Amino acid sequence: xxxxxxxxxxxxxxxxxxxxxxxxxxxxxxxxxxxxxxxxxxxxxxxxxxxxxxxxxxxxxxxxxxxxxxxxxxxxxxxxxxxxxxxxxxxxxxxxxxxxxxxxxxxxxxxxxxxxxxxxxxxxxxxxxxxxxxxxxxxxxxxxxxxxxxxxxxxxxxxxxxxxxxxxxxxxxxxxxxxxxxxxxxxxxxxxxxxxxxxxxxxxxxxxxxxxxxxxxxxxxxxxxxxxxxxxxxxxxxxxxxxxxxxxxxxxxxxxxxxxxxxxxxxxxxxxxxxxxxxxxxxxxxxx
Length: 288
What we know:
The protein is mainly β. The chain contains one helix and 20 strands. The chain has two domains: 26-109, Immunoglobulins (Immunoglobulin-like, Sandwich); 113-287, Jelly Rolls. The strands form five sheets. Strands 12, 13, 14, 16, 17 and 19 form a six-stranded antiparallel beta sheet that branches.
């Protein structure tokens, strides 16, 4: 038998797969401008733009630079920090592999203190037969504590729209005691006055009564008034969180005595808005 030698030849074809990497054509910092106040911070993001109109979060490492390091500095994560000086700065980012760059202008504004007078104010009382009575035309705002109960309480409304879009960093309510019954009628105990935020701003000083009053929300701050205090003393409440929540619109506040001690009779009075220079109810807001 003849021997048959079969030869099997296998041909391996090497296939080369060529992948085309699309490089970005531009970087864009977001937001495209930034406003900070003193000692403030914000984080920037960067998008990569591609020839096919594709946009995605920048995948490459970035190098950040501030051209005004005395005003603002920026870290490797794109967080911009301002310091104690106001002015304008420019922040750059550069793609570590692509070499693409972009920049934005950063404006650092100083705190600006604004003093606002109430647009509306009135007190209400459930005492005796006055639950349906309106005291919006009275020349004072009254809080009366009677054996630990607050018979008279009052409402204030402020228009914050004049502050614009500037972020509020601090807000304080200031009331001046211009006439105090307690100075002439001394009773044991002090008068802790708590200020509350009020969601409903539709009330009017000309129609507000005990029976139609809007209900207060969470307590914001408390100041203690001594019933023997001398007149023309100013008291202050921190209402920053509520002012920030009401930024750009009307803000309504409610004040009452929350004490449970002895009898205290001490109305808090103020001059009416017909004499703005002497008005004794005010709201101070610090914004950028």
